[in-house]
Amino acid sequence: MSGKKERKIRIVDHRHCRICGRAIPPDKELCSAECEQVRARVEARQKRMRNMIMIMYVVIFLVFFLILIIGGRSS
Ligand SMILES: [Zn+2]
Questions:
Q1: Which one, of 10, 12, 14, lies nearest residue 31 by Cα?
Q2: What is this structure's pTM?
């Protein structure tokens, strides 16, 4: 008995929903409108975070610059 079965596990081209991880067709990014909403919320938060970090950098730079100017004046 030589039943050599060629069992090729064919993985159908697919993606996973970036939010919930469910398998979805390759032309889609998210599985549902619900996940789309979640994604939009997450992206909005990330954008705000990035803006905050940018502002923080600017503030730190300005403070540093000010310290340099003040320090240069006093010496
Ligand atoms: Zn999903």
A1: 14
A2: 0.56
